[in-house]
Amino acid sequence: MSQKIEIKDLANPILTSFQQEAKDYGETIKLNLTPEAIIDTASNNTGLKDFGNEDFIERLNILTKSILDDEGLAGIGKLGIFNDQVRYAENRLKFEKFKKNFPQYKNEVISKPIIIIGLPRSGTTHLLNLIASDSRLKSMPYWESLRPFPEHLINANHNKDLRQETAFKEYDNFLQTMPLLKSMHDMHPNHIHEEIELQAMDFSTYLPEWLAYVPEWRDYYLKHDQIGHYKYLREILKAMQFIKGPKKWILKSPQHLEQISPLLRTFPDATFVITYRDPLSVVLSTSTMLSYGDRVRRYKVEPKKNFNYWRNRIKVLLESFTENYELIPLDQRCDIFFNDLLKSNLNSIKKIYSKNSLEFNQLTNNDMQKYINSHQRGKHGQVIYNLDNFDTNKSEFYKSFEFYFKKFNVLKEI
């Protein structure tokens, strides 16, 4: 049985010495959080100048302004976001150089990928990693998602690949800063990760909403057709497939739930695996995780504000999904309910493979069973998600999501 972990200081955190030092350090940094500073830093770090289509600068400008408007974001929170944007810009520069060095990558075809689309905190990460244990499929470990292009392919003078080593150093620092996040959503460098880190290279995702209070950015992102950014993602996947096989992808991102149309237009022959879970469990888990992280990245932890934001955000996401669900062809759609996944991982996988015409053989069964045995739920302890921390009315919450429960017959968990 896994250890139960109760975060008793969620709203009024007692910081460790390391957390306090990190927070104090952030306040000493004079940060120029502007597109110009991000672009210049990325160019100086890489020695590259060509970003390709520069329409991303407008998006980066709106994003940075929205972040600066978040007065509750502490210095260390702003620094983390700045460093992320620099890394995305560096990756974008390297992608442009890669395209010039290896134009033949365009001949790659993304054929019949398996794409998991489901609510955050609904089993998508476990499902992704489980399917990725099938060696016939191509997936992307977290360290690779952070820096997709080996240096030697960009610059022949660089013969060392330090990407994985760098990711592990960052992970060690992450664990010292936020030790309990390992029990909620472990970001181990070797774990298989979602493709949103690649999409962030084009600066148009919902990812900033997980790091700061950015309603202006959210509204801008939701207002624009994302088809161009999904095509950009496909090009990066082709490049990564060219660098190293296999040729069949397993992908996932909760963001896809509200982007069904561009997703279908970009990957028309994919098998779409949709996970379903009680949105109250989703919002409760999400709000607890983010409130815990806020003890360092924000000046004040506001659990109720987090809960209300993500209740509304998940509702928007599910309303869009419910409206566009029928666009997905029936023979390409595979529904996986959270409670069914918990009962039998492998039965869910067999259902997915059947939709994709992919054989579930004995070797696959053995590899997946090995993964299941070594990744039991609650392996690093199980955080207690307490609704009392968020001062919310359960019946009113469920009433606001009635459309989702009626449409998909999802079980209530709380």
- Trace the largest sheet across and list its strands: 3-2-4-5
Mean pLDDT: 95
Give the helix tally.
Answer: 20
The helix content, as a percent range, equals 40-55%
Beta-strand proportion: 5-15%
Regions with little confidence, pLDDT below 50 for 5+ residues: none
Largest sheet, strands/sense/barrel: 4 strands, parallel
Rg to the nearest angstrom? Answer: 21 Å
* Number of DSSP E strands: 6
Termini separation comes to 21 Å
Shape: globular
Give the ordered list of helices and strands.
Answer: EHHHHEHHHHHHHHEHEHHEHHHEHH
State the secondary-structure class: mainly alpha
Give keywords.
about 425 residues; two-stranded parallel ribbon; 20 helices; 6 strands; about 55% helix; about 5% strand; globular
Account of the protein in words:
The structure is a single chain. The chain has about 425 residues and is mainly alpha-helical. Helices cover about 55% and strands about 5% of the residues. It has 20 helices and 6 strands. The chain has helices spanning about 15-30, 35-45, 55-70, 75-100, 125-130, 140-145, 150-155, 165-175, 180-185, 195-200, 215-225, 225-245, 260-265, 280-295, 305-325, 340-345, 345-355, 360-375, 395-400, 400-410; strands at about 5, 115-120, 250, 270-275, 335, 380-385. The strands form 2 sheets. It has a 4-stranded parallel beta sheet with strand order 3-2-4-5. Helix 2 (about 35-45) crosses helix 4.
